[in-house]
Write a structure and sequence with these properties.
10 helices; 313 residues; Rossmann fold; alpha/beta; binds NADP nicotinamide-adenine-dinucleotide phosphate; single chain
Amino acid sequence: MKQTDKIYVAGHRGLVGSAIVRSLQAKGYTNVIGRTHKELDLLSQQGVRDFFEKERPDVVVLAAAKVGGINANNTAPAEFAYENMQIQCNVIQCCHDFQVKKLLFLGSTCIYPRIAPQPIPEDALLTGPLEETNEAYAIAKIAGLEMCKFYKRQYGDDFISCMPTNLYGPHDNYDLEGSHVMPAMIRKFHEAKVNGAPFVTLWGTGTPLREFLYVDDMADACVFLLEHYSGEQHVNIGTGKEVTIRELAETVKKAVEYEGEIVWNANMPDGTPRKLTDVTKLHGLGWQHKIDLEEGVALAYQWFRENVEEARL
Ligand SMILES: NC(=O)c1ccc[n+]([C@@H]2O[C@H](COP(=O)([O-])OP(=O)(O)OC[C@H]3O[C@@H](n4cnc5c(N)ncnc54)[C@H](OP(=O)(O)O)[C@@H]3O)[C@@H](O)[C@H]2O)c1
């Protein structure tokens, strides 16, 4: 990749897309472009084709997707399947037709089998039944990942994929209906502190084990893969470290400086007992995360506090 290459980041305003734009610009890439959902609906095959015809990007990062929490996935599986498959087909085919020199496709560890070996190696993909709560999304994403492999195999296109673990940081989604566990906790503890509430209620038992990666670290890994990786298999992106949801809650409580109690609502689902990525391959390529959980949570909370107006609540 050259510093002057035209790099199109699809989904450039989302949690992942905005971090990748920051990382590319910080690394001296001067020609990074994006289009808002309003400017370019990636569900429109003609719209995507016209955009590629006009802009002719050299490199593409596909960080646009219909993303959501357990409730959203449960209530709208058809939309999650259709929208993600349509976006991927439109963008991947145009990347081929307009001969972009590199495409990075983003999967997510929630598309690995529900009961995968832990830590989860890349070749665990498609080896068992999926987590029901996000099956539609998972099948769509798996199709995207495999498409990149098939375009590389049939046409020699340099289309690569990565599989980031749970991410958090600036521009995250704080809407309690659709958000992931980390932003939900940051918002709940912040609002409890502001309102002087004596306790905060959190879902589940607090025992599940989870891995969290600060999104700017993830973006750094994505640019690293764009610059150094052309393999057919996707690459996990994570820290290789896990905490219990209870330990996460204590870390967020400390960052927010909330003095009250935590109450666990065990009637609410815990989700899969453990989800940790195997990052041997990524480490073998020469990349390691830099921002540990405590520092990352403090940075995420600082962004939330400074951007509460703009945050997706
Ligand atoms: N969040 C995580 O923890 C996580 C972990 C691993 C992997 N990932 C992967 O990262 C990718 C992005 O996720 P994210 O967390 O960054 O989601 P996000 O914050 O919701 O960003 C998604 C972006 O895609 C845009 N978009 C959606 N549908 C579109 C359409 N039809 N046309 C144009 N733009 C559209 C959205 O724009 P609007 O908001 O304007 O609709 C939004 O800016 C996904 O592929 C996901 O699998 C995320």
